[in-house]
Amino acid sequence: MSANPNKDDQQSGVRLLEHKYDGIQEYDQRLPNWWLVTLYGAIAFAIVYWFFYFQSNVGKSDVAELEARLQVIEAANLEATLAMLDNDNLWKMSRNDQFVAAGRETFQSICYTCHGTDLKGGIGFNLVDAEWVHGGQPVEVYNTVNNGVAGTGMQAWGPTLGPKKVAEVVAYVLSHHSSGEGDGGGNEPQ
Ligand code: HEC
Q1: Where are the alpha helices (DSSP H) in 109-152?
Q2: pLDDT per position as a tens digit, 86-130
Q3: Would you state the pLDDT for residue 58?
Q4: Residue 149: which domain range?
Q5: Domain containing 86 — which CATH number?
Q6: 64 in helix, strand or coil?
Q7: How many CB atoms lie within 10 A of CB 134?
């Protein structure tokens, strides 16, 4: 205990604080520079970080970002599915309301002109009977629509519609059939 505890320490410039606890006194030290630099540096970093983080996300909520990511994943899934289209996949698509509804839209805006709104044919063939000239297996139907029939009114729709829409419209055609066996198989009109 110093005799004069409140007197500033002349040598170091450090002041003793007034309070005492159990005979212990506290100095009022100036905070060291390295400590202050760390504190103000952290504050400055937080402000700059905050600014750039929100700048780069302006108008983009987390939900929108998530949805964008989901779409990328869905697109990748769809591409993967389209890349391995087989009878099974196409047949499954024809039992899926969403695909069939999308296919109906395409059919009733393009294909109906030749195949009729009821798919029973006109300029083009009947698509709901059990007779397939170019094959009634789902993949065969897909290929007919995708590649067309050279020298006839049935053009190749692949380049115009793209694989997704072709698959959908084929699903719509197949949805009128009770099985994908084709040619004299179980393709009864609904
Ligand atoms: C301009 C008229 C026309 C349009 C539009 C058209 N088709 Fe055709 N389609 C035909 C003709 C004609 C044939 C028969 C080809 C032949 O002589 O072999 C045919 C054949 C087909 C066949 C083969 C049927 C079988 O018995 O094998 C399928 C499947 C088919 N079309 C689906 C479609 C779909 C799906 C669309 C719409 C994306 C479409 N067509 C649009 C004229 C058309």
Answers
A1: 112-115, 138-147
A2: 888 889 889 989 899 999 999 999 999 999 999 999 999 999 988
A3: 58
A4: 62-174
A5: 1.10.760.10
A6: helix
A7: 15
Q: What is the Cα 105 distance to its own chain's centre?
A: 23
Whole-number average pLDDT of the chain? 83
Which of ligand 1's atoms lies nearest the C-alpha of 161? 38
Work out the burial of residue 41: count CB atoms within 10 Å of its CB; fewer than 13 is exposed, 13-18 middle, 19 or more buried. exposed
Look at residue 28 and tell me if it is in a domain: no
pLDDT in tens, 150-182: 999 999 999 999 888 999 999 999 999 987 555
**Alpha carbon of 148 to ligand 1 centroid (Å):** 7
Residue whose Cα lies nearest atom 41 of ligand 1: it is 111
The number of distinct structural domains making up the chain is: 1
Q: Which protein residue's CA is at the shortest distance from atom 8 of ligand 1?
A: 154
Inside any domain, residue 81: yes
- Name which residue sits closest to atom 11 of ligand 1, judged by CA: 124
* Residue 26 domain flag: no
